[in-house]
């Protein structure tokens, strides 16, 4: 029974020393003096503020991408003991002693270093030689732009890592398909493919391009699998189900998990609250939650409310009025009703309060018991501070002449009767008997006389309207739009019938507690929608560029300049590598089309297995480059050189594969192969020389003279900073 104790326990392992060496050199290139410079470098000023928000658990909204990448950076700060106390307001600002610079930059550096052996393994899985695989890894290792980007607190390096991991995992899964389907190894690589795709999308929306690439290749292989007559129907179904679970369900679940952790961590009110709905704000600690704590849930006749526009664009704002009236004559010569102005005001103010009045009664207080307002009820809205009723009539709005003017009615004893009855339409109701709920209900006010809907036009009124936002009655409303929807944000049951007592009441906080916690899915849906639709104003940047400038490296970015010396860090690629990558991509495309045309004529230049390997390599490498590059031509946003780096990583994998194809299939004689090998060695030597020459601009650890800096300006379009003596 204990016989195994009589023999030694032996463990054997296959260790690829090439992978070990590449990993070691990759770590050395990325981790060398990682905490230098101890200053904010370019977009670290952008990501750093979000790390501080995580450390202080303050809610924020970033429309650049999902939260997984931000959480990775924050994890480095957490492990380094960062307390979040640093003012991220200026590029070049010196980090204080409490900022663990090395820890904050560690995860991007690690992912950048590990991308090197991933490139090596991808080439091997594509069934190319160890020499070609080493070539691909060395290109990823040597490129100066990839080194620079991975040594800073930025997200392109993790994105590239998960892109490459997704491709490698799928290739390992695909290559194990014939011999070990449904084995533990097969399941591991299939699930890891889905996980890596989810992580790539979770870092930046750009990751979806690689996800689509993997799904596309997997769909082609699945189609081929369906036609495999050696497999039973049940086995084919199991294959398809496994792929659907691993490549669709698992990534979606993981994507939701990123947001779940994100929202669980960021539980406190912050500077981005007002972008979100009132219900979302009320679910956060502090801020609106503190203001609205204890509000009654159901709006009743006599309730005192503030009404926030659900659309929130161009600014979050509340229905507002004040004693000033519309001008008799506008600047364009049109006339107005000269009634009291009604606007949407983007700040908390006592003039935002309104009283929900029953048209059939005079009282402005809540009865006992309260009589809730329901969908379809007719109401009047009384302005709390001036006691005038919300009104609209057939008079053109000041800035939107196609719509009706909205005002608070002033009785000038002329032939302009009050038209102040509104029908309540609860947009998100469950039934026609729903009651109007604080924060939760999105409602429309439909004018009884004209059928106009109370709407935020979004236009800024002139100085006579204090630059507040215009509110109109929209008669032509073919469908529901969020600019027509309002929700009650602050709410109390009014108890004062006299105006003086009511004004005092409007300034006092409420007391009774009612919980309004949103479900996770409701918060996720709103946050995701805001991230997809929120568009910050893209101002022109000194270092912004166009996709046409990227492929041949016609631009660069100055990331950091030493405050006293000429030491500087640039995002600047290895021009030999970048130009060669573009040429290799063009060469692959031409060769692929040539082979395809000849195969159509039944001329097979390549054996079938070589052709399939060549097509798969192109699908993943050239396809990965195209999917991560070409969409930028359609994007209307400020673009920078670093947006090209994920596409470049795929392009660099293609270069040695094209070189090996030339050597194996286009060089006919041994002499041609020898000459071609010599040219490849010379080319790699030139790439190494350029990488070393640009090293001072990559690491920024050496001050160069003006002459040395001028010598590095190889293109007139490059911006190399030279200090004046």
UniProtKB/TrEMBL annotation:
This protein's GO CC annotations: endoplasmic reticulum membrane
Name the source's superkingdom.
Answer: Eukaryota
Gene3D superfamilies, A to Z: 2.80.10.50
Pfam families on file: MIR, PMT, PMT_4TMC
Name the pathway: Protein modification; protein glycosylation
- Report membrane topology: Multi-pass membrane protein
- Location, primary (coarse class): endoplasmic reticulum
**Stored InterPro entries:** ArnT-like_N (IPR003342), MIR_dom_sf (IPR036300), MIR_motif (IPR016093), PMT-like (IPR027005), PMT_4TMC (IPR032421)
One molecular function GO term is: dolichyl-phosphate-mannose-protein mannosyltransferase activity
Locations listed in the record:
Endoplasmic reticulum membrane
Q: Which reaction does it catalyse?
A: a di-trans,poly-cis-dolichyl beta-D-mannosyl phosphate + L-threonyl-[protein] = 3-O-(alpha-D-mannosyl)-L-threonyl-[protein] + a di-trans,poly-cis-dolichyl phosphate + H(+); a di-trans,poly-cis-dolichyl beta-D-mannosyl phosphate + L-seryl-[protein] = 3-O-(alpha-D-mannosyl)-L-seryl-[protein] + a di-trans,poly-cis-dolichyl phosphate + H(+)
Q: Does the keyword GTP-binding apply?
A: no
| Regions that span the bilayer | 68-88, 100-120, 154-174, 186-203, 208-226, 246-267, 571-594, 614-634, 641-663
Q: What are the EC numbers?
A: 2.4.1.109
Q: What's the family?
A: Belongs to the glycosyltransferase 39 family.
Q: What is this protein called?
A: Dolichyl-phosphate-mannose--protein mannosyltransferase
**Lineage of source species:** Eukaryota, Metazoa, Chordata, Craniata, Vertebrata
């Amino acid at each position: 029974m204990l016989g195994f104790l009589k023999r030694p326990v032996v463990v054997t392992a296959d260790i690829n020393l090439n992978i070990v060496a590449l990993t070691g050199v990759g770590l050395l290139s990325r981790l060398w003096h990682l905490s230098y410079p101890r200053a904010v470098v370019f977009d670290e000023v952008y990501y750093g503020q979000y790390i501080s928000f995580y450390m202080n658990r303050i809610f924020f909204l970033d429309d650049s991408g999902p939260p997984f990448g931000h959480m990775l950076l924050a994890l480095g700060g957490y492990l380094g003991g960062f307390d979040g106390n640093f003012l991220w307001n200026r590029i070049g600002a010196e980090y204080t002693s409490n900022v663990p610079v090395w820890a904050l930059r560690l995860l991007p550096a690690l992912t950048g270093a590990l991308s090197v052996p991933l490139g090596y393994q991808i080439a091997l899985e594509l069934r190319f030689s160890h020499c070609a695989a080493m070539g691909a890894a060395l290109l990823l290792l040597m490129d100066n732009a990839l080194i620079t980007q991975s040594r800073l607190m930025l997200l392109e390096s993790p994105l590239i890592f998960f892109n490459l991991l997704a491709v490698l995992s799928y290739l390992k899964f695909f290559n194990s398909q014939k011999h070990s389907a449904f084995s533990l190894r097969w399941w591991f690589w299939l699930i890891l493919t889905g996980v890596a795709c989810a992580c790539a999308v979770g870092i930046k929306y750009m990751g979806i391009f690689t996800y689509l690439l993997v799904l596309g290749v997997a769909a082609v292989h699945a189609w081929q699998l369906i036609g495999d007559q050696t497999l039973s129907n049940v086995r084919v179904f199991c294959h398809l189900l496994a792929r659907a679970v691993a490549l669709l369900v698992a990534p979606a679940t993981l994507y939701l998990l990123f947001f779940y952790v994100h929202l669980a961590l960021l539980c406190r009110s912050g500077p981005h609250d007002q972008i979100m709905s009132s219900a979302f704000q009320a679910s956060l600690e502090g801020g609106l939650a503190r203001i609205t704590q204890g509000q009654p849930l159901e709006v009743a006749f006599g309730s005192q409310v503030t009404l926030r526009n659900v659309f929130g664009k161009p600014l979050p704002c509340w229905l507002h009025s004040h004693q000033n009236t519309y001008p008799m004559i506008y600047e364009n010569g049109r006339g107005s009703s000269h009634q009291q102005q009604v606007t949407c005001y983007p700040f908390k103010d006592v003039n935002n309060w309104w009283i929900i009045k029953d048209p059939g009664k005079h009282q402005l207080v809540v009865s006992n018991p309260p009589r809730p307002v329901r969908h379809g009820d007719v109401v009047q809205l009384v302005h709390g501070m001036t006691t005038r009723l919300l009104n609209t009539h057939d008079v053109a709005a000041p800035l939107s002449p196609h719509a009706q003017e909205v005002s608070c009615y002033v009785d000038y004893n002329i032939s302009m009767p009050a038209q102040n009855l509104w029908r309540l339409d609860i947009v998100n109701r469950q039934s026609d008997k729903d009651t109007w709920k604080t924060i939760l209900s999105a409602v429309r006010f439909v004018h009884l006389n004209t059928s106009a809907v109370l709407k935020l036009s979004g236009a800024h009124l002139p100085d006579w309207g204090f630059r507040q936002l215009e509110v109109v009655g929209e008669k032509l409303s073919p469908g529901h739009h969020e600019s027509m929807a309002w929700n009650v944000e602050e709410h109390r049951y009014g108890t004062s019938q006299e105006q003086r007592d009511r004004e005092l009441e409007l300034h006092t906080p409420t007391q009774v507690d009612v919980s309004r916690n949103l479900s996770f899915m409701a918060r996720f849906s709103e946050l995701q929608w805001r991230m997809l639709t929120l568009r910050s104003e893209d101002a022109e940047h000194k270092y912004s560029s166009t996709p046409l400038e990227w492929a041949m490296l016609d631009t660069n970015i100055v990331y950091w300049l030493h405050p006293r010396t000429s030491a500087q860090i640039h995002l600047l690629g290895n021009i030999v590598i970048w130009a060669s990558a573009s040429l290799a991509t063009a060469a692959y495309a031409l060769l692929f089309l040539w082979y395809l045309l000849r195969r159509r004529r039944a001329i097979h230049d390549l054996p079938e297995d070589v052709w399939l390997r060549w097509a798969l390599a192109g699908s993943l490498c050239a396809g990965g480059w195209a999917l991560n590059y070409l969409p930028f031509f359609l994007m209307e946003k400020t673009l920078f050189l670093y947006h090209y780096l994920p596409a470049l990583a795929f392009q660099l994998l293609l270069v040695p594969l094209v070189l090996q194809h030339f050597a194996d299939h286009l060089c006919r004689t041994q002499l041609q192969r020898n000459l071609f090998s010599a040219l490849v060695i010379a080319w790699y030597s030139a790439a190494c020389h350029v990488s070393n020459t640009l090293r001072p601009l990559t690491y920024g650890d050496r001050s160069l003279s003006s002459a040395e800096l001028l010598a590095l300006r190889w293109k007139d379009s490059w911006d190399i900073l030279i200090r004046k003596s």
